[in-house]
Amino acid sequence: MEDYDVRSAASILASVKEQEARFEQLTRALEEERRNVNLQLERANLPPNPPTSQPLPWQQVVMQEQSPSNATSLAMMQEPQEVVEETVTIEEDPGTPTSHVSVVTSDDGTTRRTETKGISANVKVTKMVKTVTTRTVRQVPLGPDGLPLPEGTSPLGSYTDSIDRRYLKNGSDRFITPQATSTLTRSYNNSYNDSYGETPESQYIRHYGLHDGYTDLTDNYGSLSRGVNYRPPRYPYMPNSYRPENSYTLPIRKDDYGHVAQPQVPMGSSTVDLNHSQPERFQPEPYGLEDDRRSLGPEEEEPYELEPDYSTANRRTLPGANRGRTHREPLRDGPRVRGYPDDPIEAELIDERHPYIHGMYSAPLAQPERGSMASLDRMGGRRSPSIDSIRKDPRWRDPDLPEVIAMLGHPIDPVKSNAAAYLQHLCYENDKIKKDVRQLKGIPVLVGLLDHPKSEVHRKACGALRNISYGKDNDNKVAIKNCDGIPALIRLLRKTNDMEVRELITGTLWNLSSYEPLKMVIINHGLQTLTNEVIIPHSGWEHEPNEDSKPRDAEWTTVFKNTSGCLRNVSSDGAEARRRLRECEGLVDALLHALQSAVGKKDMDNKSVENCVCIMRNLSYHVHKEVPGAEKYQDPSALQAPGSAGPQRKKKDDAGCFGGKKAKEEWFNQGRKNGENDKSYDTLDLPKRTEPSKGFELLYQPEVVRLYLSLLTESQNYNTLEAAAGALQNLSAGQWTWSSYIRATVRKEKGLPILVELLRSDSDKVVRAVAIALRNLSIDRRNKDLIGSYAMRDLVSNLPSGQQRPAKNLEEDTVVAILNTIHEIVTDSSENARSLIQAQAIEKLVAINRTSQSARETKAASHVLQTVWSYKELRNALAKDGWNKSHFQLTVTATPKATKNGKPGYDDTTLPLMEKNQDGYSTIDQRDKDCKYKTGDGSVDLTEREPLKMFTFSIARHSDNERSVRNDTNRKHYIRSNRPAVSLVDACDVKPQPVDSWV
Amino acid sequence: MSFVPGQPVTAVVERVEIQKLRQGENLILGFSIGGGIDQDPGQNPFSEDKSDKGIYVTRISPKGPADLAGLKMGDKIMQVNGWDMTMVTHDQARKKLTKKREDVVRLLVTRKSLEEAVKHSKCSYPKH
C-alpha cells in the first residue's frame, strides 16, 4: 500500500485517464467482437457432434481456429466434460478467428517446448490441465454468491455455458488489440514457463470453472488458501486490501484473480455476462488499474510481465506478495470495498482474493493452515517455490499438537488430510505424542475421518491411526476401540479399493489385534469382512473354481500379510475365537489354499506363510473337542475301553492336549493290547465322505499332513517350522478318529524322519514343538516303536549333561518337553527303554535329576528313570554300567508326589507338559521364545565390533506396522508386544521383579 | 549404548567368562544386575539413554568371581551363554545367569570405554 500512497494523486489520475481512453476504444472493439463471437457460438451450438478427437495435430487446430464454427462446436462438446483442458482449447479457438491467435499459439508452443515444434493447441491444453484438477474443482464449489460452499456440489455444470461464452468474449477482447495480444502472449510464455505451462488460454481454462482457478491456488498453497477462502466473514474486507497493491505491483496476479473471479459470475444469459464483464474492467480503473488489466488481460500487463521478476513469479508467489501488502492496510481497503457493491463481479472477485490474502497473515485462524502447509512441505509433498518462500518467512511456525488436532476438524478437506498426515508423522516412534493425541481427544476425530468420502482424507487419517495404534501403550488401542474405530476401519475396508488404504487399515487392525481385550471385538466386527475382502481374494482360493482355469496362486501382498497377522493374533483368544474363525466361511479353505500355493511355489519363508500356518495351528487346537459333531468321531475303542484301561495307573481326568489323560491311556493301552490295530493303521479307511470336505473339516483331514510335512521340510522360517510341528501336534492329540488317522498318516507320509531331523534344529522352540509332536504321535503304537528306534539319540542329545555344556542351550520348557517325550516312548516299551540306555541317556538323566535347578526338569527326569528302572529285564544291563537303584530314585528335593505305587507317576509327568501345550498352542506368540531366539551366534571375540543381529524377533503382532510419513521404510522397531498374555515362560516370569538382584 | 529394537545393533563387546563359585547350596557369580524390559529404564543409573531397557551390572562383590573375571559395574550385558539379554525381563536375565547346571557363564558385555575405543557407526537410525 505504501507504493500506492507514494504515488501522487496526480500521476494516478493521469494514468487513469489514459487508461480510460484506451479502454473506451477497446470496449467498442470488444463489443463488436462479442457480437461476432456470440453469433459464431450460436452457430456452433447447432452442430451436435463436431470432430471429436482431442489430440489434434497442430495444423488441424489452427484450421479449426480459423473456422470459428468448428472450433466452437468442439468447445461445446467438451464443456460438459469435466476435463478442463479440452475446453480450453476450444476457447482459444473462438478467440483465434483473428490471425494473431494462431500466432499466439505457435509462439506458445515454441517457447514452451522447443522439442515439440508442432505441438497442437491441445497439447498445451493438456499441460495446463494438469495444474487444474477437476477433482479439486468439485471440492471447492462456490455458491452463486461467490462464497464457497463447504460440501455442496459444484455449480460447474450449471454455469459452464455462460461462462464459456463470457470467456470467449474476453478472449476476443484481448485479441482485439492485435499488437497487445502478440506481445502479451509472449510475455506470458516467458513468465509462466514450463512450470505453469499456461498461456493466457490456459488461464482461461481455469476460469472456465471457477473452481479450477481455485484449485490451482489451493494446490500450490496447500490447504491454506482454501481454508482462507472459506471463511465468509472475512470476505467483505478482503477486496479492499487486495486491490490497490495488485494493480501496481503484481499484474499477473490480477489475471489470476480475475480469472478466478470470472467463473464465479453467476450464470446468466450471455447478455448478463457481457454486462458484468464490461463493468469489471472499467470500474476498477478509478481505484486501481490492476483490476482492469487482469480482466482485460494481456495488453496492459505486458510491461510487468516482461520483467524477469514476474516471469519467475508464478501466480502462486504473487498471492504471497499480495498478502504482505494487503494486511498492512486493512482500513483503507475497507472503504473502497464499499464503493464496489453495485458491481457483483467485483465483489466476488474481491471476496475470493480477499480470503486468500487475508488468511495468511491477519486471520487468527491462519495458524492451523500454516501448520498444514508446513506439514505438507515436510512430507515432501508437492512444493512450489512459493511454499518454500513462505516457510522461510519467520512468521511461519510449526503448529503445536492441539492445533494439528483442531485442524482435523477443519471444514476444508486438504487441511484435514494434511493435519492427519502430519499427525502420523509426529506419532512415528513417539509414544509421548501418541499419548498426547489420545489425551487431546484426537483419536475420535481421526476415527471420524475414516468415513470421509475423500480418499486423501481417510487415507491420512488411517495412517495416523496406524501409527497411534502401534506400540506398548494399550490405552491408545483401547481409545481407538472406544470410539468405534474398529467398525469404522472395517467399513472403510469394505468401501475402498485403494491398496494403500487397505494396507493401512489392515496394519492398524493388526496392531489392535495384539491387545487381548480387542481380539473379540475385531472378530465380531471384522472377521468375515477381512476374510472376504482380503484373505480369500489374495489366497487365490475360489469358492467355485473355474475348471478351465488353473488354480490361482496366493499373492503375498502386504494387505494379506497384515490381515493374516491380525487373524493370527485373534485366533489365540480362546475357544470362542477359534470357533468363530473355524466357522468363518471360506477362511480355512483360503488359508489352506494359500499354504498349498506356497508349497507349490517353494515360497515358504515369508511372514504371510508364517501367519497362515500359525492360524491353522491355533485352529487345530482342541479341534477334537470343539468342532461341531466331534462326538461322532470319538474313537469307539477309547470310549468302550475305560474299564479295561491299565488298572495299575490312576489317572486324573485332566483336560489337556491329549484330551484327557484317561482317554489317552485308553488309546495307549488299546494299541498295546490289540496288536492287530497296526494293520488298520496301514490300510486306513477314512470316514466316508459324501461330499468334499470344506471349512473347518479341512483342518483335520489327513490331507493336511502332507502340507505340514512339506512346510517342515522346506521352510527356513523357525516360526513356520514351529507352527507346522505344532499343528501336527494338535492334530495328533486326542482320542477321536481323526487324530488316529493323522498319526498314521504322518507315518505313511514318512513324516517321522522329517520330525526327527528337526530335533537337531538350532531353534529351541522348533525342538520343543517337534518333541511334543513326537510324543503325541507315539500314542500310535507303531509310531512309538519307530520313534523309539530312530529318534532316541536325537532326543537324548538335546538333553543337557551335567558339567559339560550342552551343545545347545535349551529352555527349561524344551528340556522338560523332551524328557516327557522320552518318558512317553519308554513307557510300555522295554525295547525303547533299552535304546534309551544305549543312547547313553542314563548319565544325563541322573545328572539332571541330581543337579538341575529346575524342579520340573528334575521331576521329569526322575520319572523317566523310574520307568526305566521298572523294567526288571534291563536292570542287569544298568548295573553293568555302574548304576544302582539309588540313581533311579527321586532326589530329595523332588520327592513330593512322584511314585506312590512304585509306578511312574503318569499324572505328574504329563501335567506340566499339558499346561504348556495348552497355552503354547492356543496362543501363537510366545514372545519369550521369540526374544531368545533372536540371539545371534553367541561367540563373539573380545572388543570386536560385533553386530548383534536383533531383527529376528518377529512377533506376529506389531512387527512393521508403524510407518512414518517421512521415511517410509519398513522398519520394525518395537519388537515386543506389550501384551501380557500368552507366553509360556512369561506366565512364571511375570511376577513383580526386583530392580536389582544378585546372581 | 542404545539401540532401536528390531534394528541390527553394532556394539563393541567384550567377552567375560565367569566361573561360578559355590557358596553352600548356591552357585554365585558375585554381581548384581538391574534393568530388563519390565523395569523402569529411567531409573537405571548406568545407561546413557534412559530408554534403554537392557540388563546392566549394578554391583560387584569385591574379589568375587565376577570381579576376578573383569566385569565392571555399569557394564551392559548383551548376551549370556549366547542368549540375548537386550530384550529380556529382569527375571529372565536372572534365570539365565543362575542356571544351576552351568558352572561357567560367558557374558558379552559392552561398556562406554569400549565404545569410545572404537568409533562405531550406529547413526543409521534417527534419534527419537
From TrEMBL, chain A:
Gene3D superfamilies: Leucine-rich Repeat Variant. Residues 13-43 form a coiled coil. ARM repeats lie at residues 441-478, 484-527, 750-787. The keyword Cytoplasm applies. It comes from the Eukaryota. InterPro entries: ARM-like, ARM-type_fold, Armadillo, Plakophilin/d_Catenin. Residues 90-114, 139-160, 259-342, 375-395, 632-656 are annotated as: Disordered. One of its GO terms (biological process) is cell-cell adhesion. Belongs to the beta-catenin family. This is Armadillo repeat protein deleted in velo-cardio-facial syndrome isoform X1. It comes from Pundamilia nyererei.
UniProtKB/TrEMBL annotation, chain B:
It is found in: Cell membrane; Cytoplasm; Nucleus. InterPro entries: PDZ, PDZ_sf, Synaptic_Scaffolding_LAP-MAGUK. Keywords: Acetylation, Cell membrane, Cytoplasm, Membrane, Nucleus, Phosphoprotein, Wnt signaling pathway. CDD domains: PDZ_TAX1BP3-like. It holds the Pfam family PDZ. GO terms for molecular function: protein kinase binding. GO terms for cellular component: adherens junction; basolateral plasma membrane; cytoplasm; nucleus; postsynaptic density; postsynaptic membrane. Its main location: membrane. It is a peripheral membrane protein. The keyword Kinase does not apply. Coiled coil: none annotated. GO terms for biological process: cell-cell adhesion; convergent extension involved in axis elongation; establishment or maintenance of epithelial cell apical/basal polarity; neurotransmitter receptor transport postsynaptic membrane to endosome; neurotransmitter receptor transport, endosome to postsynaptic membrane; receptor clustering; regulation of signal transduction; Wnt signaling pathway. The keyword Cytoplasm applies. Residues 15-112 form the PDZ domain. This is Tax1-binding protein 3. It comes from Pundamilia nyererei. The gene is tax1bp3.
